[in-house]
């Protein structure tokens, strides 16, 4: 098991990588969702309290860099983590390729759906002037495709290291 210092460094590297990639002008890089990929790939390696600490830390950092109401990303990532754990421990108990893909697609769908609900609610309440349009749906579909490819590469990499 990793020490707490290495877990904190891993969480910082993942969230800073996500902030850097999501703010890039490249459409390919801005579609990568590192926290969700990490939660899916390492769902077996960390216990639930450790993953919840990661999620709370990531949510706070993303809320600092966001123009949405504070707590939007924290709530979104927290719900995604709970949903992924429920799915994994009740339905997909093995770490197979197909269960990883289903968990990734479920995690990204819940992430985008909850974030979309928060954005729509904050728009109608007057907290933000950003509204969902067709571009958000296109970016969601590209997230599914690009992160699916990254899960395939990550799954292949883990199987190579395990042998």
Could you tell me the mean pLDDT? 85
- By helix and strand content, what is the structural category? mainly alpha
Largest sheet: none
Low-confidence stretches: none
Give the overall silhouette. globular
Radius of gyration: 16 Å
For the record, the count of structural domains works out to: 1
The overall strand count is 0
Topology:
Blueprint: H1 4-22, H2 27-30, H3 34-41, H4 48-64, H5 72-90, H6 97-124, H7 134-162
In words, what does this structure look like?
- The structure is a single chain.
- This protein has 163 residues and is mainly α.
- The protein has one domain.
- The chain has helices at residues 4-22, 27-30, 34-41, 48-64, 72-90, 97-124, 134-162.
Question: What would a concise description of this structure say?
Answer:
The chain is built from 7 helices and no strands. The chain is mainly α and 163 residues long.
Please describe the structure with a list of short key phrases separated by commas or semicolons.
globular; single chain; mainly alpha
């Amino acid at each position: 098991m990793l020490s707490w210092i290495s877990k904190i460094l891993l969480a910082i590297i993942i969230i800073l990588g996500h902030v850097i990639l999501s703010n890039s002008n490249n459409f390919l890089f801005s579609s990568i969702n590192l926290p969700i990929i990490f939660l899916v790939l390492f769902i077996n390696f960390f216990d639930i309290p450790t993953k919840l600490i990661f999620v709370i830390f990531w949510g706070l950092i993303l809320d600092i860099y966001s123009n949405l109401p504070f707590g939007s990303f924290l709530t979104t990532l927290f719900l995604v983590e709970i949903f992924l754990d429920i799915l994994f421990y009740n339905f997909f108990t093995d770490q197979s390729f197909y269960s990883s893909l289903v968990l990734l697609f479920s995690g990204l769908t819940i992430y985008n759906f909850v974030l979309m609900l928060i954005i729509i609610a904050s728009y109608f309440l007057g907290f933000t002037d950003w509204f969902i349009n067709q571009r958000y749906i296109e970016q969601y579909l590209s997230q599914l495709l690009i992160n699916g490819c990254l899960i395939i590469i990550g799954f292949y990499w883990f199987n190579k290291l395990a042998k």
